[in-house]
């Protein structure tokens, strides 16, 4: 089975449309979204509607949950909090209700899907290095755990005593992995191209897909809505 795994769409309609166009070309068997449909960019309602139409499974992210529990946004950075409040003002009632139904995790075919960290469920911890990965490998039983949250694509491989960061193309059938698929709507690894993952469970292959999208249009909508200029600026740098 071929899985397309997307995460951190963040109301960036231009990126999401480009992502789904590429996914339609690939024709995977299932599309899994790891959450954070909203905030940072200007079109949360449109992105939610598109994700509902295209995805087989959608996981709740912390920015999604902040639309239900406003106290979560108190821990956000200043720009993230501003965008969360802006989303709160424009989000349709039916989309807020939809967010409230989303699960925090999903498992099938020896694959676990969460937004951030299996160790921190039902909360949202970061897996940024091998030490974080080691802690998380002990908290779930599946062979693969797919995550987003940091917006930085990376593959961690479990070994007997620790964990290692490895290349996507080097995964092995006898190892366990934590794979961050990056972000569709706001990449932060210095590459402005949107990112998502593609996993073939039969061939045992994982690929990170990077493609261009209309950043100028997405950035322009951010500033038109009165959101912080930094949220538009960072799209061009992928930071």
Topology:
Blueprint: E1 2-6, H1 13-26, E2 30-33, H2 44-54, E3 57-58, H3 62-65, H4 78-90, H5 93-100, E4 105-108, E5 111-114, H6 130-137, E6 144-147, E7 154-158, E8 163-166, E9 177-180, E10 194-200, E11 205-211, H7 215-224, H8 229-237
Parallel strand pairs: 1-2, 2-3, 5-6, 6-9
Antiparallel strand pairs: 1-10, 4-5, 7-8, 7-9, 10-11
Brief synopsis:
The protein has 239 residues and is α/β, with parallel strands linked by helices. It contains eight helices and eleven strands.
Biggest beta sheet summary: 6 strands, mixed
What shape does the CA trace take?
A: globular
Taken as a percent bin, the fraction of beta residues is: 15-25%
What's the total number of strands? 11
Work out the helix count.
8
User: Could you name the CATH topology?
Assistant: Purple Acid Phosphatase, chain A, domain 2
SSE order, one letter for each helix or strand: EHEHEHHHEEHEEEEEEHH
Name of the CATH architecture: 4-Layer Sandwich
> Helix/strand-derived class?
alpha/beta
Distance between the termini: 33 Å
**Largest sheet, order of strands side by side?**
4-5-6-9-7-8
| CATH homologous superfamily title | Metallo-dependent phosphatases
